[in-house]
Amino acid sequence: MAETLQNLALGFSVAFQPTVLLYAFVGCLIGTLVGVLPGVGPLAGISLLLPATFGLSATTAIVLLAGIYYGAMYGGSTTSILMRIPGEAASVVTCLDGYAMTRLGRAGPALGISAFGSYIAGTVSVVALMFFAPPLARFALRFGPPEYTALLVLGLLVLGYMGSGSMIKSLAMAVLGLFFGMIGIDPMSGFFRFSYGIVELGDGIGVVPVAVGLFGIAEILATAGQETPPQVQKPRLRDLLPSREEWRASFAPIGRGTVVGFLIGLIPGSAHIISTFVSYALERKLSKHPERFGQGAIEGVAGPESANNAAVCGAFVPMLALGVPSGPVPAVMMAAMMIHGVSPGPLLIQQQPELFWGFIASMYVGNVVLLILNLPLVGLFVNLLRVPYRILYPSILLFCVLGVYAVNSSVVDVWIMTFMGLLGYLLHKFDFETAPVVLGVVLAPMLEMSLRQSLAMSHGSYSIFVGRPIAATMLLVAFTLLVVGLKPLLPHGTDWRKRLGLADRSE
Amino acid sequence: MSKLDRISGAVLFLVAFLIVWESNRTLPLGTLHNPGPGYMPTILALLLAGLSLLITLIGRDSARFSSLEWTEGKHALAILAACGFAALALEGIGYQATMFLLLFFLLGIVERLRLTLVLSLAVGLSVGSFWVFYNFLRVPLPLSPLGF
User: Fold this and answer.
1) What percent of chain A lies above the pLDDT cut of 70?
2) How far is the C-alpha of B98 from the C-alpha of B144, rounded, in Å?
3) Residue A35: what are its φ and ψ, rounded to 5°?
4) Average pLDDT, chain A
5) What percent helix, strand, coil does chain B show, rounded to 5?
6) Contacts of A125 (CB under 8 A, 6+ apart)
7) Alpha helix locations (H) across A383-468?
8) What residues in B contact A168, CB-CB < 8 Å?
9) Are A277 and A93 in contact (CB under 8 A)?
10) ipTM
11) Which residues partner with B30 through β-bridges?
12) CB-based burial label for A265 (10 Å; 0-12, 13-18, 19+)
């Protein structure tokens, strides 16, 4: 403990150097701007700016790139809250209650709690990263393909079970999303599936066009032409920060979101996206008033936003402690470290303590910078809502098309966004939730790959899923949830009062 | 069959049927122990078919199709057409021209705003966003044949 604090002091002596502070600020600023634009997420932002760090020292380069990473994670929530356009996939869940709060004139508190929640989650997760990195990383590595398959199945069922609407409809939408995720080249056999000669579909359907279409475009289609468009209440200046009640309601969700996000962030894959869905579902289930979710419940913003940022820190654990990147962004970060002559892994702490602890300390500093940077911007962003919707929605549409095209420089993505917009509009009319479709698209490639890898490991035997304790436990929980969720559909036995012929008399 | 859930259930069942049919037509199914590229889509389609049947069966209490209002329908069609136009024109006439036309159509023709406002917004947003993305963020956006 004393040694850790001593090392942290060393780290802060590095992080508080004026140049490092400056690069942390620049990274957070660029990251926030990148996150605000739909389509240009943290991965694209870091990749685009990686060459710009070649002339910097290893510490400043890593601090700059890490700043872009968590700046983008925060920035993505801004457009979700204000316009129902997820800046990146992890902000999809924030659309649900964040945008509903905006419609109620509470955009400021939604953005504020998002900033505070991100700050608290980020800071607490860095503490966890400091103390628990090596043992947690070793636990995360016990997740092989069978455990991963079980986790993904459990995740899908948890979402269906905890959703506000019909479980059957949620599951149907998740299955539809999984099917969309199957489109493209089969990674095991090289077959083109459902691509009909469209080369761009070979890489599959991206999450960004699906999310922007199902949320952003569908919302524009549903609201732009209404005879009396829903009036977004203009926020007053004194309403920009969360009220005492909103703080009280957000405190526990931020705590739970932090724990959920950090733990899920350890697991390889698109964990930060999954963590937001799990956090939202958890908050809805634990709430005394679950019917408020989707109507502007601040817990629905606080939990997922905290989980999102905590997962970012969680994702750094296997990278720093073991040299194993747990997702595409940590992989690019690791590549950046290697370009600067740093090899992440167990020896990093011993060989380059200044860099390791400087990085840890810079994450604390980065979270403070992010908060200082974003709170004044809340007022600025909220003022966008003063623009009349007749002018605002064509501008939003421009940024949707631009952001979606920018991901792969492909017009096929713009077509996918258009189709998903129409689908989202119709699904909304027919009372289906669209979030499970996005989750399905995210999980499909991972689910299929892990299932087939598991079967390859076991020479085709499905017993591998029940023979391994972690996988078996998760599948048991999933099965229980399914049975409990479907129980209301089973035919009920005859009422005992009817059998006794008492029903008529008592009525 | 006029209930919303019955209609949506039937449509989802049709989608599931088409997936199974298409998977079996073009993709090897493999075996239970060694799944091929058609295995997962078929499994998913069967799941979807089962769920859609359940939706149809329990959908008797849902609202009637005739209760849906489509007042925003024409607007929605215009916006979808604008998106389709953007997809068609983007790589043909370039980003700036496409976005100018898209904004001119939506602001000027659909929303009928003043011409000066329409022109200033269309030019400002199409040129401004191009400058930020193309020059500042180095995002490769398509240029027109005339080079702008």
Assistant:
1) 84
2) 9
3) -70, -30
4) 80
5) 70, 5, 25
6) A258, A261, A262, A265, A309, A310, A312, A313, A314
7) 389-408, 411-429, 435-457, 464-467
8) 51, 54-55, 58
9) yes
10) 0.94
11) B35
12) buried
d(CA B90, CA B86): 5
End-to-end Cα spacing for chain B: 54
What Rg value do the Cα atoms of chain A yield, rounded? 23
Average pLDDT over residues A422-427: 94
Residue A479, CB-side half-sphere exposure with 13 Å CA sphere? 8
pTM of the predicted model, to two decimals? 0.78
What size, in residues, is chain B? Answer: 148
Considering its fold, how many domains does chain A have in total?
A: 1
> CB–CB of B41 and A406 under 8 A?
no
CB contact under 8 A, B99 and A429: no
Residue A70 neighbours by CB under 8 Å, 6+ apart: A28, A31, A118, A122, A309, A312, A363, A366, A367, A370
The pLDDT-based confidence of B138 (bands split at 50, 70, 90) is confident
pLDDT bracket for residue A228 (50, 70, 90): low
Q: CA of A415 to nearest chain B CA: how many angstroms apart?
A: 6
Question: What is the amino acid identity at position B14?
Answer: L
8 Å CB contact between A474 and A465: no
pLDDT in tens, B83-117: 999 999 999 999 999 999 999 999 999 999 999 99
Interface test with B, best of A43, A186, A489 (most B CBs within 10 A): A186
Among chain B residues, the shortest Cα distance to A49 is held by B137
For the segment A372-414, what is each residue's pLDDT rounded down to a tens digit?
Answer: 877 777 777 777 767 788 888 898 899 889 888 887 889 999 9
For the cut 60, the answer to whether the pLDDT of residue A491 exceeds it is no
Query: What three-state secondary structure class fits A193?
Result: strand
Residue-number span of the structural domain to which A178 is assigned: 2-506
CA distances from A467 to A146, A458, A470, B33 (A): 10, 11, 9, 16
